[in-house]
Amino acid sequence: WLLNNPDFSFSSVHWQIDAGFWRSDLPGRLKKFERWVKESYNPGIRKLIRFWIKRMEKTGEVLRIYPFLAVMESLLKGEKSLLRCGSGWANYSIQTDGYIIPCPIMNGMRDFYLGHIRDSHPLKLKKVYVGEPCTSCKIYYECGGRCLYANLTKRWPDEAYRLVCEAVKNMIESLRLELPKVKDLISRNRISLKDFEHLKYNSCEVIP
């Protein structure tokens, strides 16, 4: 609907699950969140991917749904990806007081300050990457790590964050299942690899 409505359609769509960011909101919502992921979100993502593929088949149009675009492009090219928003390694944020931080939502987190614009060289800033449990995950190089802030602060315990990872795995595996269809469409010139190109590393969420 966001891409197709006649009144105010968007040229591209991003989203991110509101999960893993606050510790205080977890106890009262964990069971509901688990049920929502399994009964609504994951099935909804699979349905949306099928719609995305059918649109390619029927019209030759690759809708600009960023989580799908980015992952499918990597699958098509066989390339590995680091954190897809680019925060901490491909781009940085500058606070109003001049301090440099790895991610725009890490404002005021002094432990993660990387320098100040008055005396830091932009090409010599420390790179900050996600750590465990992301780096040992079997789909790490396809996912890239989802969210630097959530990974570093670990507001949610592993058991709860596992649900978020399962949602990401559901999306990536569902896209992988559609890879042969996409390759076939490209081979028949129905679509092209260029259709999957997108703006990268601007700190905007890619993996939900």
- Spatial gap, N to C terminus: 18 Å
Major beta sheet summary:
3 strands, antiparallel
Number of helices: 5
Quaternary organisation: single chain
Beta-strand portion reads under 5%
SSE topology string:
HHEEEHHH
How large is the radius of gyration? 18 Å
Helix content: 25-40%
Q: In terms of structural class, how would the helical and strand content be classed?
A: mainly alpha
- The shape is globular
Mean pLDDT: 93
Strand order of the largest sheet: 1-2-3
Q: Could you give the count of β-strands?
A: 3
Uncertain stretches of 5 or more adjacent residues: none
How would you describe this protein?
The protein is mostly helical and 208 residues long. The chain has a domain at 1-79 and 166-208. Helix content is 39%, strand content 3%. The protein is built from 5 helices and 3 strands, in the order H-H-E-E-E-H-H-H. It has helices at residues 30-59, 66-77, 140-143, 148-153, 158-187; strands at residues 93-94, 99-101, 115-116. A 3-stranded antiparallel beta sheet has the order 1-2-3, with no helix packed on it. The radius of gyration is 18 Å and the shape is globular. The two termini are 18 Å apart. The mean pLDDT is 93.
